[in-house]
Structures are given as C-alpha cells and as structure tokens.
Fold this protein.
Amino acid sequence: MPTQDELFAAVDSLLAGEPELPLPAERARLREAAGVTQARLAQVLRTTTQTVKNWENGRSEPRPPRRQAYQRLLEGWAAKYPQPADSESADSVTTDSVPTDSEPESGPDTFTGPARQSEPPAPTTPTAPSANPAQAAQAATPHPGSATRSTARRTATKAAVRPAVDPRFPHGPLAVLDGNGAAYCAGGIVLECPATTIPQLVEWTLRESGIGAARLHRNGKDADPLIALTESATARFGLPARLEDRRGLRLPEDHPVVREIASAKWKLTQRGFGPWARIYRPAKGNERQCVQLAVLPWDALDTRAWGDAGELPAPELARVLGVYATRVLTPRGSTAVTGLELMTAMRPPTRAVKDTSTGEWVSGHNPGSLGTIPVDPAPPEAPQEHPVAQGWTGGFLDEEAYQWVRDPKLLTDEECLLPYAVGIDINTAFLAAAARLAVGLGRPRRVQRPVFDKKVPGSWFVDLSHVEIDPRLPSPFTPTGERPTGPAWYQTNSVAYAVELGYDVHPMEAFVRDETGPYLDPWHDRLKNAYVTTMADLGVPTGKDVDERAFLEAMEHHKQVDPPLACVLSAIKATLKGGVGKLRERPQGRHYRDGDRWPALERATWRPDIRAAVISKARINMHRKMLNTAKAAGLYPLAVLSDCVVYPSKGPSPLDFLPLTDEGHVLPGTFRLGVGPGLAKLEGVQEMAWAVDLMEQGYNPARHIKGGDAVLDEGE
C-alpha cells in the first residue's frame, strides 16, 4: 500500500502537470476584449491562425510549452478584462445597427440581449406525424411568448437545415408564407399563421412564430425574423401584385396597407414599404420589435443573384433561404446589402464597456471594427462626385478588375493553329483577396516623399512606368492592362507587387492609415465555409489533394445535382461580390448633383479604400498566376475579364495546357484546380478561330467564352 507521502507527491505532480485553461468561449472573449486578432496571437505563440481558431472553438487544446504561455496570457487578460458580474446588463447595451440599404437608418433601436420571456403558451399540436420522434418533439416545442396555438409539423426535405438551437428561435430564422396561412420554415417545419393584415402578421411573427436567429458575434445583435410573402400571400394582405413605383420601389404613403401599419403604431424605415420592408417599434428593454418582409412578386429575390429561387414552391424556397441564412446571414435586402451587413455582423462596431466613473455599462468602440463614425476617404480614393474630390486635380485611384485583350499582332502561328480557346475562372477571387488583408480602420493621413512600406495600407502616388512586363501579358498596374505612362495613384498591394518584381519605387506622396487590421477576416471565413460547404453538398470534391479530373467532371453537372441548392451557391457568390461593391456605393437618383453628400456616405462601412485594396490584391493575384504560368510553360493568355482568363490549348480541358508536376497535378503557383477561394475551374471552351476573330474585331473572348455575355459586376 502506498504511503501518504507517496500519494501526496503523485497528486502534486498531477496538479503541476498542465495548467487549467478557461472554456473556449472565454478564451475568445478575452482575446477580443484585448483587441488582438487570431493571426496576431498565432504569431506571438509561434503557431498558425487555424490552430488558434481550433483552441477557441474547442476542437483542440494547446500542448506544452505553448499551453503554459497561453495560460499566462489568458490570466493576464482576465485580470484586465474580467467577466462582467451582471452579464444581462452588459448584453443589453445598445449597439449600432447598419442600414439595410444606402439610406441612413432611422428605424429600430438595436439591443443585443435575449428576448423577454413571458408565460409559456399552450403546446403546439403537430398536424402530421413524424417518422423521427426526436424531430416531432422538437417541432412541438412552444415559442416563449406565444399566446395562441400555432400548428407545426415537420416533413422530410432534402438537405434540410436543422432548426436553430437557440430556444428563443425553435423554428429557425425565417418563413415563407403562402396565401392559405401556411408558413414554411427551415428544416421542414410548417406553422399555421392566422394573420390577415400586416400588423397582425408582425405581431404573430414576434409573439408566436418562434422565428429568428441568434447573433453571430457576442457584441452583435440577433437577426430580425424574416417573412417572405408569396404571390398568394401578397394578395391575402391587400398588397398589389406589382409595385407600380419602379423608381422609388415603395408603396405610396396613402396606400391602405401603409396607413394600416401607422394606425397600429408600427413604423417603417426610410425605405418605406418596398420589396424588402422593415416594420418596427422602438425596442423595450432587451427585446427588439422588428420584422422584415420580402415581397416575392415585387422581385425581392433578384434573378441575377438568386437564379430561379423566386419561382420555387414555398417549401423549397424556405429550404433555400434557410440554408443561406444558416450559412451566411438572414437576408436583409439584396445580396449586396446582406454582404455588407455580414461584415458588420462579424465585426460589430460597438461593445459593452463599463464606465469607471458610474459603474454602468455603456456602448464603446469595438477594437478591430470600423466603429460608428463615417470617415471620408482621401481625395484620390473618392469617386469624382464626392465632396472631398471637388477641386482636386491630383488624379484618382484606378484599382479595378481586368478588362484586357492581347494585341492580335502578338499571336504566333503556333497559337493560332491550336484547336481550342479555354477559359478558366478563379473561384471567388475577391473573397480570396480578402483573406489576411490588412486594411485601414481610421482616417487617412497625407505624407510627402514617403518611404514605401508594404505593411501600411494606403494610396501612393508613384511612377511605375519603368516596370518591364512581357507585352503578351497585361500590365499588373492598370485594369486595361496597358503599361502606365507616368506617375499615378496605386493601392499598397499594387506598389508592393512592383517591389516583388525587383523594381525600386519612390512615391512622391501618399495617404496612409495608421490604425490597421484584418477587418475582413471573419467575413472571409464565414463566406468561405458557406461556399465550400455548399459546393460539397452539390457533389464537388473539396479536399486538399482532390483529383483534378474528378473535380472537373463534378463541375460539369454540379448545378443539376440539386437545382434549388445551386440557387444558394449563386446567392453566396453574389453576396461576396456585392458586399465589396457596396463599400463604394455611388449616388443614385436623377436629382443628384456632384459635390452633394448622398445617404451611403453616412455609413461607417462606406470605405472605397477597402474596396480598392480587395480589387487590387485580386488583380495582382491573377497577374502572378499568369506570370508563373508563362515562366513555367511559355503560355500566354489571349484575354482577361475580371477573374476569367482565356488561353489557347491543344485540348478542351485546362489539364491540356496548364503546366503539370511529375505526379500529374497542376503546378503550384499557377492556376491550380479546385473548390477553394483562389483556385480555378473551367469557365468555357470555344474554337480558337472564334477567339481570334473576336480579338481582331476588338471584342474580349473572356466575356463570351461561356457561350453568352459575362457581366462585370462589382455590386454597384
């Protein structure tokens, strides 16, 4: 039998073995409270950003010696940023909401605390038995605050989204309402909605439906419930089948439904009652009172982003919108608006901080965000109609996507005799560019004769005309691909590429930002996961070492595997592209005059410099791949349009012309094939003679390689 001393020694050894770490959520809270990014923490602990993410979501635990260092850091942060004793009062602090369109939001106050709990309702009664008892029990869970009985049933649907785990929102983020009162929710749930007027619908949604979604960030706000109205539901509530005001996109103020809303003491935001209407009352305590409506017959779901989703039956549309809401965000307007609001949802502008003088919780700046105060750009970064650009004669930033065609005189006979022109497309090129992209968070500062620093986001006035590029390649510094002829304004990424190519640069002046950070990283991570997961659901292999031939084969028919889910994929791509475009939303309306401010300028997220940084990096990434391909295989493109590049080829597949390794894979650094952002896929194939003919006529083959007209759309 061991002695007491031996047992005590064993226990002491165990206690000294590994320090006890806080729960994963607390680790993330402490890091965010300190204003430190995951990338910065990974750098300090000499590990990877993904490893830090795994520590903070509970997928893995740090091992010695990093564990002890991590523990010491967390203990230091815990002393400086203790867990609020009254978490409810901290969570109830008002945070700033971002408008759902270009107008400044004068609508609902935003609170981040949980909804107020009231007396539980009578249990819901399923209208159809479920084959899965657990699902049946979950479908019958009542929503807190319900005053009447709602009917709920669950049906089996392909790739259905599970209802939200948050007990406040048992029926998911949204519903598609039919004219017979059936409200189809995510996961196959069907509720019975007795409302016959819009105010009744709003009351039912807030009090009985159990619809909504929890915040994506602890400092953010819960998503307002969304009700999509089908054509028959539109008629049920007295709304016109077609919106007559196609310019203003809203019902007139004297419309009976608008008057009905006002009579019931509900309010509309400044957008009025249009395809995406928000109806609200000022928040009470921790409880938001806001419902968003999407009127489907009024083209709420733009076919350019959503494909044929608006024509789907209500149950299928609920599935499509539910998948999108679960993977991206509950739609809050167009995909461009939603893309912009996702940035704010992932990086809320404010957080709860304790006022040391009063001991009260107040709203304070959230480190790493853009804050709540709009910041004007530097004159060269602004569009020419912006107030700060009036009278500016020093030139403007021109960081846009490629639209370039090689001079037909530079085509060789060997190229012209090849049978095919093959277009390859970069997957979510703007999203790939947003990864680990340092952007300015504050105001620009003008500097004369600066020393260039690639780590400093900004705009630089510099002469890059001396950079020599093979004429069979586009210049990396202009969207037209033409060589610069003198000094011009460039974003940091463009100037850094000139340095990477081995050239000296001597900027004459610059507008730089001292406060910087990877603002778009969380936005990138969420959209990347949404994109890759949806592609996997469509049968496309997504592993790191994917067989490229199997990938190309799957891509040929992936949209036919599940057409409704293909609508989700289209919307995800439109969200990321449109969100970038919204950063530089231009003035709208025939009455606008240059020099006047327009509503979008009142958003802290109106940041043309961030848009320029994303597009500049995407264009440089494309040029780097083209240059590496030319060096490895002597191949030169025929044309480029944004993220699509066309090459001459001996066969109809990218594998017929791209340089390969000894193992048969596309050479790293060129156009590697695969699903992830920044990897490539086949865009289209045509005859080489067809491409040459277009080039000689001055047209861009990349625009038509897919068999139609490509649309260069930045979401503006």
About this structure: The radius of gyration is 28 Å. The CA atoms of residues 272 and 389 lie 32 Å apart. The chain is about 30% helix and 15% strand.
